[in-house]
């Protein structure tokens, strides 16, 4: 069992290199990742119980068949599907091995931090780019279309780390391992540094929701919905009123605060596509665009061949900023097959309701579907079992 768990983690890390390394868009790169994933599929199918081939998994197989049938075997679409399939086929392995047995948590922690280390390397490269030009990451996407740094550090790390920060911080108060606790704080510091330096609006929102959910553990169940609604209103109200608050301070004798708020507002607008007057409706417009595109093409969607090409997606009305809505706009009603599989897989692998809530929230906020949502399902959902123990023996 221990060997299977280690192999499943190593396989995911290898796939991580395929995803954020160079050459995945080339024919040789595609052949390599396809061969790797096919061999891995046969290896794990041999060891996984027959329950893996159940009605639940049939949702994923039907979805893969539909997309490949309608996409004309587009290379980028195939890479996205193979990557998703890798994580999905390994989830039952981890579920079977971990179960309610806490003795494997050390292995999970080890590979979790190995993966974070890989991402931090790209985070460092992202920071170097940001020091040269605050919009360098955007330029990499729009001009060079080089996702190596962008996916590895520019987007995936701040999103994942800002999501993990409050929960790892909460968990470290329960787990007394000094080395693990120090590693957590280092990861939090590195992730927060990139978030504050780049000020991605998505990352900021995830941080807000994360700490809100942590706070809600001490709030009665009947008041949690009201607290969450209040938090959402406060967050968007602050962003909407930010330019007016900055102008107020700029009119005072001391305008240091006003200048700083203006800088934050400008960065928010530039990274979210907002208007110069501070209007933050752009992200909502992008989300609504995907919803309307789905309503116009509810059965088959606009087709998966545009996946991975941001500009093509933008032309046909896909906002690329709310993946649950985006994949419905792309795949139509057939997206239910994939969404149902992913949500059920995240639910089954963790007995903690908060991991499922985070998984769903991330799907509404995050534009990097093929990496970060899979990362969440693969690592965050199982890990939360041990950070928020459901049974007493987890604390041992």
From TrEMBL:
Domain named O-antigen ligase-related: residues: 186-339
A GO CC term attached to the entry: membrane
Compartments, record wording: Membrane
Keywords: Membrane, Transmembrane, Transmembrane helix
Keyword Transmembrane helix: yes
Pfam short name (any one): Wzy_C
Membrane-spanning residues: 5-24, 60-90, 110-128, 149-171, 183-214, 226-246, 322-344, 356-381
Membrane topology of the entry: Multi-pass membrane protein
Name this polypeptide is given: O-antigen ligase-related domain-containing protein
Organism this protein belongs to: Macellibacteroides fermentans
